[in-house]
Amino acid sequence: MLRRLYDWTVSKAAHPHAEWWLALVAFLEASFFPVPPHPLLGLMCLAEPKRALRYAVIATGASVIGGLLGYAIGHFLYDSVGVQLLAFLHLSESFPRAACYLREYGVEIIVIKGATPIPFKLITLTAGFIGMPLIPFILASIVSRAISFVSMGLLFRVFGAPIKRFIDKYLGLVTIGVVVIIISGFVAAAMLGGGGNNASNEKCNRPAALIAKP
Length: 214
Prior knowledge:
Blueprint: H1 2-13, H2 18-29, H3 38-47, H4 52-76, H5 78-88, H6 95-105, H7 107-113, H8 120-130, H9 134-169, H10 171-191
């Protein structure tokens, strides 16, 4: 079953409309969609390794634009939409500390996020909520998403054939790995909602004092 699904997806990844599907998933994931676009991007790169960088750029651009939607939800619709959205994504407890860290460190947090599995939607919603300046938010988002997607595109562009052979041989293990990465992102985000003993993070360990808009 898994093998048939994989073969079917690879065939669709080479479809003329695959780029539009990739852009749509990357756009939606940046604001509210729970599944990241990386699996689709990876399969498309496997199907067409020579176009891997093109796919990565498409995913980066669509994700940044989708991040603006997440920003708008956090800024204008937090009480009516944002609260329910965070609850649906199980990110409510992570939100106050994410807001604190964004206020304290700004673009650094967004850029660093690009190298972590923390959901990008948490960052975009939070940035809108705290009213982070838009231009720095956009520039940091471009860097963050490029770290995540372009590095992946380069990997497939250079090592596409060996990677495909590995996946063909160990599809089950690769599938488990992708699931673990997705779950670990939400776990890492949940850790933002937990306590901490580091004195330098004391301010960000008081969620009740952080939830009000500036």
